[in-house]
Amino acid sequence: MKIALIGAGGKMGVRLSANLKGSRFDVAHVEITEAGQARLKDVVGVNCVALDDALAGARAVILAVPDTAIRAVSHGLIDKVAPGTMIIALDAAAPFAGHFPERNDVTYFVTHPCHPPIFNEETDMAAKRDYFGGVAAKQAIVSALMQGPDEDFGLGEEIAKTIFQPILRSHRVSVDEMALLEPGLSETVCATLLVVMKDALDEVVRRGVNEQAARDFLLGHLNILGAVVMGEIQGEFSDACNKAINNGKPRLMRDDWIGVFEPDEIKESIRRIT
């Protein structure tokens, strides 16, 4: 089965190309930049082809391009693919924002990696150091069939499992749910709070705490506190910790912060991204 991989020489494209190599899929690689073509040849050992050649006979087309390029790229190729072709996006932002062209006889599939979890059972050092995923550490994935026959979900999921392998779990969600997960949960909330934690680390260092001591203290507490909050272990916070949370949360968080998950705010966040 033929797959056209658009943006094959980018960072994500090279990752996907490496995982597709040796699979049951016949991959036609497309990359417009000379640097990307050279990177793909050097890392994966494959050559690129022209877009029209890649699309000819392709059952699926993977768009490994930035969110801001999805509209232009998808509109540029939509008239060149056969009916029934599956167009795969690697992030929900652009599809959620309506950037895919209107064409009823193609399938739109969206998939995204969860990345290797903090709490895992990896023992191999390469897996422990694979923070992004797709190399050695198992990760879960989320996927959505945005448009097309339901039986196409199986093919999309197979491709997703191949490009993001090794896989821990695979979850089927909707595009709207995926938008709640990212940017909502993972970026607006999680990434923001992690930046705040790093700012706090820098501040206690500025106030005189040894940097390595502060880092060890924060990351160690992040491990145990996270294990308790996420139910990885049975336990509860001390009375002193609970009092600090009760005092700290209103100091750090607006009363209406949960509103970041409201549809209008998700839409506005995605508008800024795309």
Judging by the overall fold, what is the CATH architecture of the largest domain?
Answer: 3-Layer(aba) Sandwich
Q: What count of structural domains? A: 2
**Subunit organisation of the chains:** single chain
State the low-pLDDT regions, or none: none
Q: Can you put this structure into words, describing what you see?
A:
The chain is of the alpha/beta class. It is 47% helix and 15% strand. It contains 11 helices and 7 strands. Strand 6, helix 7 and strand 7 form a beta-alpha-beta unit. It is globular. The mean pLDDT is 97.
Give the topology.
Elements: E1 2-6, H1 11-20, E2 26-30, H2 34-43, H3 51-55, E3 60-63, H4 70-77, E4 86-89, H5 93-96, E5 107-113, H6 125-128, E6 139-147, H7 152-163, E7 167-172, H8 175-206, H9 211-229, H10 239-252, H11 263-273
Parallel strand pairs: 1-2, 1-3, 3-4, 4-5, 6-7
Antiparallel strand pairs: 5-6
Task: Characterize this entry briefly.
The chain is an alpha/beta fold.
Please name the defining characteristics of this protein.
globular; 47% helix; 11 helices; 274 residues; alpha/beta; Rossmann fold; 7-stranded mixed β-sheet
